[in-house]
Amino acid sequence: MIDRLVLASNNRGKLAELQAMFAPLGIALVPQGELGVPEAEEPYRTFVENALAKARNAAQHSGLPAIADDAGLCVDAFGGLPGVDTAFYAMQYGYPKGDDHNVTALLEQMRNVANRRAALVSTLVALRAPEDPEPLIAVGRVAGEITREPVGNNGFGFDPVMFLPAFGQTFAQLPPEVKNANSHRGQAARQMLELIRERW
């Protein structure tokens, strides 16, 4: 069983969530920046292809098994966009890159949109080596509705505007342990842990 995985991300929020989720397996997640791994190109239009590219890049540069997460917001009224472009969403509307700007831009674009349905999607890909012919792939998806304004102080990304009817709250209002148990990334991480146990 492996004891270290390089995480193909330098996003502190992602790292903290995934480290908490992988702790039960005794697997340490090392952010790629600590190992001098450069950011990967993400030219693809699907989460799974981008996650695979990031994982391959991290495994190649580090010599360790790697895991990558590609996640985003898929808004029904926008035909599933911003999707893979979620991290850069605000920049399309003249704002600097960043979570708060993404939220501002989204709320502006949805000001007169009645259909508020959206899903947060997380695709995790893990590889034993860059040429691994059998990447492990896990997908988590949480559907909800985009609020009219941000609510709550926990989490990151679109958490303050992602309202979950099952909880009657946004992700940003939920305690971290509840969010992690029910989030798109939480779902994908649980599937991935099972796959790692079973296959590796």
Automatic annotation (TrEMBL):
The keyword Cytoplasm does not apply. Signal peptide: none annotated. The active site is at 70 (proton acceptor). Pyrophosphatase that catalyzes the hydrolysis of nucleoside triphosphates to their monophosphate derivatives, with a high preference for the non-canonical purine nucleotides XTP (xanthosine triphosphate), dITP (deoxyinosine triphosphate) and ITP. Seems to function as a house-cleaning enzyme that removes non-canonical purine nucleotides from the nucleotide pool, thus preventing their incorporation into DNA/RNA and avoiding chromosomal lesions. Pfam families: Ham1p_like. It comes from the Bacteria. The keyword Metal-binding applies. It catalyses: ITP + H2O = IMP + diphosphate + H(+); XTP + H2O = XMP + diphosphate + H(+); dITP + H2O = dIMP + diphosphate + H(+). PANTHER family: INOSINE TRIPHOSPHATE PYROPHOSPHATASE (PTHR11067:SF9), INOSINE TRIPHOSPHATE PYROPHOSPHATASE/HAM1 PROTEIN (PTHR11067). The lineage of its organism: Bacteria, Pseudomonadati, Pseudomonadota, Betaproteobacteria, Burkholderiales. GO terms for molecular function: dITP diphosphatase activity; ITP diphosphatase activity; metal ion binding; nucleotide binding; ribonucleoside triphosphate phosphatase activity; XTP diphosphatase activity. One of its GO terms (biological process) is purine nucleoside triphosphate catabolic process. Substrate binds at residues 9-14, 71, 156-159, 179, 184-185. This is dITP/XTP pyrophosphatase. GO terms for cellular component: cytosol. Binds 1 Mg(2+) ion per subunit. InterPro entries: dITP/XTP_pyrophosphatase, ITPase-like_fam, RdgB/HAM1. Keywords: Hydrolase, Magnesium, Metal-binding, Nucleotide metabolism, Nucleotide-binding. Gene3D superfamilies: 3.90.950.10. Its EC number is 3.6.1.66. It comes from Caenimonas sedimenti. Mg(2+) binds at residues 41, 70.
